[in-house]
Structure formats: structure tokens, C-alpha cells
Amino acid sequence: MVTQHAAYRNQAARPLVVSDRDGALDLLENGLREVPVYRWLIGDDAPADAYRWYGEVLLVECMNGLQGIFDDTGNLTAVIAVSESSEEAGVVDGELKDRTRRWVQRIDGFVDRFRELQSKTDEAKVADEAIRVIFALVHPERRGGGTLAALVDPVVERARRLGMPVTASTSDPRLSELYARKWNCLVRAEFTLTDGPTVWVQRLDP
Predict the structure, then answer these.
(1) How many CA atoms are closer than 13 Å to the CA of 188, on its beta-carbon side?
(2) Is 39 helix (H, G, I), strand (E, B) or coil?
(3) Closest CA to 62 of 123, 20, 101
(4) What is the span of the domain harbouring residue 100?
(5) Which residues pair with 135 in a beta bridge?
(6) Considering the domain boundaries, does residue 2 fall inside one?
(7) What is the CATH number of the domain that holds 62?
(8) How would you list the strands of the sheet with 198-204, edge to edge?
(9) Is the pLDDT confidence value at 6 over 70?
(10) How many distinct structural domains can be found in the chain?
(11) Which of 23, 31, 47, 120 has the smallest set of CB atoms within 10 Å of its CB?
(12) Structure pTM?
């Protein structure tokens, strides 16, 4: 994978398509484990396949709002999932539903942790109508070179044109600080998960 950032800077994000699925799953399988809230949900000791499964669930649910950045060889190096309404979620097919049932049973405590995350997320909602950044992941070799900004800047610009706020949540304190410093996306609520990380919920007003 290319390690130089110069080639990337001239590239823009594009919508992901079905043929990008495997590359997206590779990125999510490794990237989700680095995110404190997903590590808490799925488990520090969970196998790579568990993270790949949950990545697939996220891909399906967020497919209509996925954008990615690719390097010169066509490898996906960064992805962002954005939602503008609660009606955009994709449909999980029967095969993925079956695997989901198996993983939910296999991962000890997953159901309770998932319910807690959903409940606390709902309670910490900071806008009724907003463009939501659900997640953003950047390959380790592409961090620090403006890759995240190339994902987020178009979202912020679209929200300004529409006169809508942008919301995002993160369990990474460095990312929370970056959202606030670079985009003035300020912390409006927060919650701490049982034996887990704090999640900051942030909003940028138009």
C-alpha cells in the first residue's frame, strides 16, 4: 500500500459500490478494533471474524451513505458513513441475519452491551434533523495527511448548503478534540458505558 500522502491529496471521496465491499470489509475489520466503543461492544479478545461480521452489518445498514477514498492502485484507504434520515438503512439479507444470530449468541454479553449503547445514544441525541456522521475510518498509513478532512469537509459543506446541523459521536478523545478544533463541531452531550469508554456527542450548527 502506498505510504506517501501527496497522491491522495488530489483525490476526492466517491460513493462506494458493491464491488468495493471486500476492500471496505478489510478496512473495517482492522479499523473497528481500534475504536474504543466497538472494542467495548464486540470484545478485546473477539476474533477478527467477529469484527468483519459487524463491519458487514454496518456496511449494509449504511450503504446509501458510504463514501471512500482510494489510492493510486485502487485500494480503499478511508471510508465515511453518513446518514441524512432514519429511512436510509439498508436491508440485511437472510444469510447475514443467520450469521448475526450466531455471533450475538457467541459473543458473551453482546446483547446487553448493544442495548445499553442504543439506549444511551438515544438519550444523548443532540438534534432531531441532522446530517449524521456515523463513523469515519482511515487506514493507519494514511493518517495525518488530510485524509479525514477530505472525508468530512464535503459533509460539512453539504450541511451548510442545506441549512442543517452535522452531528457526530466518538469515543476517541483525540478525534473529539479534532472535530471541535477543525470544524467547530462541539460536544453537546456525553455518556459513559458500563466498564467502557466515554462517548462524546457533537454538533456543528449551520
Answers:
(1) 18
(2) helix
(3) 20
(4) 14-204
(5) 81
(6) no
(7) 3.40.630.30
(8) 14-15, 66-70, 76-83, 131-138, 166-170, 198-204, 186-192
(9) no
(10) 1
(11) 47
(12) 0.89
